[in-house]
Design goal:
single chain, about 240 residues, mainly alpha, 7 helices, globular
Length: about 240
Amino acid sequence: MTTQQRAHLDVPASRRVTDVLPAIGAVAGIAGPLLFTVGFIAQGYVRRTEYSPIAETISALEAGPIGWIQQLNFVIFAVLMIIFGTGLRITLTHRRRIAFVIFVWWAAGLLAAAIFPLGETSEGETYDVTGLHQPNGFAFFLSTWAGLAVLSWCLRADYLWRSISRYALITSAVLALLFVILGAFAIPSSAPLHPWAGLLQRIYLAVWFPCLIALAVRLWRLVRGPSRTAPQINVISTG
């Protein structure tokens, strides 16, 4: 066996980031936030006479006869997050199962938003049909910043991801602050910032989504960029 072959075996399979699955995961991680954003912006434009993106949350797009479009938007985003998490997990050597669970947590919240949609009364008022959408919304937005904090901890243990872990942690802190503002001052109908709940929610996503895309871009660079070759460790020459 040659020295080069021995070096290849010394690198765990999970570190051979030239595999196709991490590349697919990176594409999914970039496409997920972008497609979801295009989806709700396009719907808001089409329904501009009945829907206010400033006052109403994105979930309010589920109400009405074409609400299934936003439900589908949630589902597609959830599937792409699972694919993204799978690709990222392959490139990690430490805490990768924990990191993957974070993406499953996010996907579960998105799927639940589709399964338990908001409805519309005959007067055109939006309401929680099952009583489960709003609790799920709270849990989902909690998962975005709390999960990102845990993900940052997972990335910090890996030399290929350590450089971006601080950005994830800072993003988590900003999201935690926005989470409190949304939950206490915007989402409740009697809250002082309720007329701007939709705008504040979009600001929240405008903080979270770039971080997701940055993580996906980092994954892509590990797969296709010059840093894709893992270091040779414990290389033993057999002569």
